[in-house]
Amino acid sequence: MDLVTEVLRVSGMKGSVGARMEAGTHWHAELANYRGIAAHAVLSGGAWLVMGDGRHVRLAAGDVVLVPPGAPHGLTDVPDGGPSMREATVCPPRDGRTVFLGSGPARTRLFTIYYDCNHLTRTQVLDELPDPFHFQGGESGAAYLDDIVRLLGRELARPQLATGAVIESLVDLILIQLVRGWLSGRTAQPRGTWLGWVDDPVVREAVERIHADPAADWTTTTLAASMHVSRATLARRFQTAMSRSPASYLTQWRMDLAAVDLRDTRDPVEAVAARVGYRSVPSFTRAFVRDRGMTPGAFRLAPRRLAPDAG
User: Fold this and answer.
1) What is the pLDDT of residues 106-153, one digit of tens each?
2) Which of 72, 78, 81, 89 is nearest to 29 (CA)?
3) Largest CA distance in the chain
């Protein structure tokens, strides 16, 4: 099973082009107060990413950088531009339009993608990425990223028939290639995170079995037996890799699946409970209240804007 694809699907992770920028000299684009993860891709020229805490990252053509949700940051041609730079500050639109920055002919061309999920699920892939995550063009580990970025740039510059569908697909491909690049190029094991299974084949198999059949009557003992390892071995290695027990992870994944079903379908609570391994509605309700702070019925009726704060 492809676990990354499964979690991205269940979490509803999607991307959209925020703005396409063409910049000359003496420019600064301020970006903050957005909900999703911002990905900035440089098509030509160069720029500086300036984080709110003062960190600077040099971006060259072909580079892509991911910034966590809501993190104050800006893009500029000179990281320490002084008062004159502040006068040239703009907040680019987030509707895919092209904005022209600075003065003189365009030296730098870049675009921004915003990635966000439905926030109903606690199991997320991008929560584990570094802050910020800088992927340099031509770097090994994410083959074809340069080509995808250039193709997206051409589609944005010269829209054609079905450009919207092409852009949507390319935006998803960029996300996958970035995750691949991070996983293949990291120097430290992502222990204590959801991606802790990557470097432990025993934990990986356990997570795959949970995802393949979340309704099964799993316990740490039965899960270990199905894999032909001891209960103590599975419990120890799972805790080291994921910073939680197999039972705790199983419950989280079941509640994620249930939350999506409750919000996106009209299936009765009994059916949702059965799909995630609960034989009775009362036991499912107790588990759901412990996890989300409200009953399944109340969760289903709650406004969507309340979903991220539930529990």
Assistant:
1) 999 998 998 988 788 889 887 766 678 888 876 654 557 878 888 888
2) 89
3) 68
Contact 87, 29 (CB under 8 A): no
pLDDT 10s digits, 240-273: 999 999 999 999 999 999 999 999 999 999 999 9
Asked if 62 and 92 count as a contact pair (C-beta separation under 8 A), the reply is no
Interior/surface letters 72-101, b for 16+ CB within 10 angstroms, e for the rest: ebbbbbebebeeebeebebebebebeeeeb
Domains of the chain: 3-185 (2.60.120.10), 194-309 (1.10.10.60)
Q: pLDDT for 272-305, tens place per residue?
A: 999 999 999 999 999 999 999 999 999 999 875 4
Element (H, E) at 305: none
At residue 223, what are phi and psi to the nearest 5 degrees?
-65, -45
Is residue 125 within 8 A of residue 8, CB to CB? The reply is yes
Spatial distance between the Cα atoms of 144 and 20, rounded to a whole number of angstroms = 21
Cα separation of 286 and 267, whole Å? 19
